[in-house]
Every structure is written in C-alpha cells, then in structure tokens.
Write a structure and sequence with these properties.
The structure holds 2 protein chains of 2 kinds. Helices cover 79% and strands 0% of the residues of chain A. Chain A is mostly helical. In chain A, helix 1 runs antiparallel to helix 4 and helix 4 runs antiparallel to helix 5. Chain B is 74% helix and 4% strand. Chain B is mainly α. Chain B contains 11 helices and 2 strands, in the order H-H-H-H-H-H-E-E-H-H-H-H-H. The longest helix of chain B has 26 residues. The two termini of chain B are 22 Å apart. The chains are: A mainly alpha, B mainly alpha. At the A-B interface, helix 1, helix 4 and helix 5 of A face helix 1, helix 3, helix 4, helix 9 and helix 10 of B.
Chain lengths: 124, 278
C-alpha cells in the first residue's frame, strides 16, 4: 500500500517533468522562430554586459511582452515554464508526502519550496 | 556574422555539448560556458545564464525517465535539496560580487576535477557494519532494481554529505552548471549509496538546485532570451541523441576524447582568468 503510493508519486513526478520540458521547449522554439523572423539581421552585442531588458528579466515584463507577441518575451516565457518545471516537481512532493502522512518529508519539501520562491522575491 | 548564422552555429555547438555531456554523464553545462566565452566571445555572465537554463532542461528531461524506472531516491533527493538550494542562493548572490576572472579560474578547476572523475570511475564503496542511526531516523533508505529483484540500502555519513551538497549548490549557482560530479561525490563516497542510485538521484536534484539560482539570475539580467534559445534547444537535442547512443556505442573512446576537450577548456579558462581577460 505505502509502496504503491510511493511508486505513484514517482510516476506522477516523471510524467510532470516530461510534459514540463516538452511544453517549454516548444514555446522557446516558437519564440525563436519569431525572433529570427522579426530581427533585422544584425547580431546583438553579447560581448559587453548590459543586462537583459525588463521584457525579459521580470515575470511581469515577460508575460506582458509575450501577450504582444514580442519574440524575446515569448522565448522568456518558455524559459519561465522551464524554471517552473522543477518547482512544480517540489509541489508534487509536498502533496505526495502529505497524502502518505509523512510529516517530516512534507516539511522538508515545504522548506525547499520556500527557498525556491525566495529566490524570485530576493534582490529586487 | 548575422543573427541567423550566429544562432545556427550556437545551436550546433550546443548539440555537440549536450551529446558529449550525456555520453559522459557530466552534463552539457560544463562545456557550454567555456565554449560561449572562448569561442563565441560572449560575456561571462550571459554565458552563465544560458548554461543554467540548459541545465534545468536536460536534468528535468533525464530525471523524468530515471524517477519512473525507480532508481532515484525521492526522499534522499528532497532532503539534500535543502542544502543544494541554500548553496545555490549563495552562489548566485556571489556571481554579482566575485570578479569574472575569479569565476573563470574556479570554473577551470571544476572542469579539471570533472575530467578526473570521468576517467577515474567510482566503484561501489564497501559499507560499514552498522547502519547510520541518523539515516534510519530520517528514513534515508530505499531499494533499487537489481537483476529482477530489489536490493536494500541505507545512507551513511549524513552530516558530511549535507555539507558537501551545500558546496555543490554554491558551485552550481556561481558557475551556472549542474555540478553533478560533486553531487555524486557526496552520495557515492560519503553516503555510500549504490552507483546507479547516486548518479540518478544527483540528476533528479540538479533541476531544483538550478531553479534556486534562476530567480536571481533572471533579476540580474543574466538570462538573454535570444542567446539562451539556441543553447537550450541544442543542448536538449544533443542530450537526447547522446542518451540514446549511450545504449549501443562503445563509450570509452568518446569519453577519452571528451576528457581531452574538457582539460583543454579548463586550462584555457584558468589562463584567461589569471591574465584578466574574462
């Protein structure tokens, strides 16, 4: 019974990771095609660090830009989905261990989730 | 070079990096950063950003298969992720404080270490007689499939492994890599886990570790979409081909060729860092 649930959690995490990576790669690819079509032809300057524009470095900027079909924001959206994939896997852990009534590992998963979310609010 | 040619060249380089990374088990990230900096003359911080994103993609893709086959230990992985994610936050924070030249030197040393572990294959370690009391209390145990049956194991030296994992996380955040070589060290040498369990659980943890740095990388502007796009797609495609080929090809010669490439890149990163060119 307990082993069945554990195996069920493994299968759910595996399927979720696979879907997450596939969907993000497709969004990055779509954005990439759009980018190559929209760009004037000249290569941007990658040799000197200026930092990515707001349309590609904040969650709000990326989602807003993607809605207007800005190519870099669409790629950024794919990257956000990719970053969300392992975070989602940790959420599966929180729920899965809670269902198995494993208090210690539910708590461990919550701590990992909190650290991950902290990385998105820190250093503004 | 126009943007189309540049993206195409970057894509094929990344396919090669992903292919070799999967063949050797070191991941594509260790080659992508030096390739971008040395070959394509990309700024180091942009290279770290593109590499980190590709690391999340390949590790999540590979973990999807391993976790379903029942090799990865979810509990051990989740427990050690507390250490790796905290380390990753520190590492990502340090990228803005440490000079690029120092990052280059540290990167080169990690490359040389990875090359060494790739040649010097770790064997399953002899176990101590008595199981670790802390590991039993934390339920850091499991079983994995061996020729039809399942073999039981219990983790050893938990505090030491936790400490090494914090270091692995810091390197991952500082260098934009998965630092699988250090993670395997903690689980294989300290925890004495079976090799198949430590390598697949390491892979399972890499995506979450990298995701902890990703938020900080994003807000620092390290992740350039136009640069990350060909890198992510290329490394992902290359690692898919590599893991398929792994089942059939004679790996030894490819592994040795890759080690030579890694040693050369490592030496050049150290040289460029010491002479202040990064």
């Amino acid at each position: 019974m307990a082993e069945d649930r554990e195996h069920g959690l493994e299968m759910a995490m595996g399927r979720m990771l696979q879907i997450g990576v596939t969907v993000s790669a497709l969004v990055v690819l779509a954005g990439g095609i759009l980018y190559l079509l929209q760009s004037g032809g000249a290569k941007p300057d990658y040799a000197h660090f200026q930092g990515a524009p707001a349309a590609a470095s904040t969650v709000g900027g990326i989602v807003g830009g993607a809605l207007h079909m800005d190519a870099r924001s669409v790629i950024g959206l794919g990257i956000l989905l990719l970053i969300a994939t392992p975070i989602c896997r940790v959420i599966f852990g929180v729920v899965g261990f809670a269902v198995m009534r494993d208090k210690f590992y539910t708590a461990v998963s919550v701590v990992v989730l909190a650290i991950l979310l902290y990385s998105f609010v820190a250093h503004r | 070079m126009n943007v189309f040619d540049f993206s195409l060249a970057l894509f094929f380089t990344s396919v090669l990096a992903g292919f070799l990374g999967a063949m050797t088990g070191l991941g594509g990230g260790v080659v992508i950063v030096p390739a971008l900096c040395l070959l394509f003359k990309v700024d180091l911080h942009y290279a770290l950003g593109a590499s980190l994103v590709s690391v999340i993609a390949t590790s999540s893709g590979a973990a999807a298969a391993y976790v379903r086959e029942g090799y990865s230990n979810i509990r051990i992985g989740m427990f050690l992720e507390v250490a790796t994610t905290l380390g990753a936050l520190l590492g990502a924070y340090l990228t803005a404080k440490v000079s690029g030249n120092w990052i280059g030197v540290i990167f080169g040393l990690v490359l040389l270490y990875s090359a060494w572990t790739s040649v010097h294959k770790l064997d399953d370690q002899p176990r101590r007689g008595k199981p670790d009391a802390l590991a039993l209390r934390l339920n850091l145990r499991g079983s994995y499939p061996v020729d039809g049956g399942r073999e039981e194991y219990v983790a050893d030296h938990v505090p030491a492994a936790f400490g090494i994992m914090f270091g692995a996380g810091t390197l991952s955040g500082l260098l934009g890599i998965g630092s699988g070589a250090v993670k395997v060290l903690a689980m294989d040498e300290a925890m004495k886990l079976p090799f198949k369990v430590s390598t697949t659980t390491s892979n399972f943890m890499i995506g979450v570790t990298a995701a902890a740095s990703a938020g900080i990388y994003l807000s620092h502007g390290y992740i350039l979409p136009s640069l990350a796009m060909p890198v992510v797609l290329g490394v992902l495609a290359g690692s898919l081909i590599g893991s398929r080929a792994l089942a059939q090809a004679p790996v030894r010669s490819i592994r040795l060729a890759f080690v030579v490439v890694i040693v050369a890149l490592g030496a050049e990163m150290i040289y460029n860092g010491m002479t202040g060119r990064l």
